[in-house]
Amino acid sequence: MHKTVQMRPALLILASVALAGLMALAGIADDVAAMSAGEQKSAAPQASPNPFAGDRAAITEGADLFGRNCQQCHSTGGIGGKCPQLIYGAWGPGGANSDELMFRIISEGRANTQMGAFKDALSQDEIWKIITYLRYEAQRYEQRKKAEDEEDDSLRR
Ligand code: HEC
Q: Are 135 and 62 in contact (CB under 8 A)?
């Protein structure tokens, strides 16, 4: 009797260590499952599912496709005007809006807005190329902004 009472805390610690271990393992299993499912479920911007990410030729083709399909509303280089801009803030590289989300919006459109669905007009590859181009414009925007900020700083000195 006396013995079991003393054993309990040790058993509890052992049990919780085992539980933590199991939970960690389950977490890893989830990650592996998400990875093999093409990262479709992950909301965080991780490795892009875009098969053309950073591809120079895709940037050029994407620019052409953007010019013919999107520019009339989203303006040159996606800087926006009457319609939302697509290159800074949440749309920037590593921003809150993942490539998957962008793909879905372009493919399905936004209900009850001027943003139509492009899944019939454009192939999946074409949509990815447009995204590749917009990510490139986003980088250029970042660089421009950085240069401007540095110039401001030097003027203030
Ligand atoms: C006829 C005008 C029009 C055309 C053409 C158009 N869009 Fe849009 N787009 C819009 C409008 C308006 C919205 C905002 C919809 C809303 O209120 O949620 C939008 C939203 C978006 C968004 C979501 C932006 C955000 O901040 O929520 C993306 C991404 C986008 N468009 C990409 C494209 C791409 C890529 C093309 C070309 C393949 C394109 N759009 C063509 C009008 C257009």
A: no
Together in a domain, 31 and 81: no
Dist. CA 12–CA 47, nearest whole Å:
40
pLDDT per residue over 104-121, tens digit each? 999 999 999 999 999 999
131 occurs within a structural domain: yes
DSSP string, 130-146: HHHHHHHHHHHHHHHHH
The token pair that represents 61 in the structure block: 């083709």
Residues with CB under 6 A from ligand 1: 69-70, 72-74, 83-84, 86, 102, 105-106, 110, 113-115, 118, 130
Residue nearest ligand 1's atom 36 by CA: 70
Q: Is 49 contained in some domain?
A: no
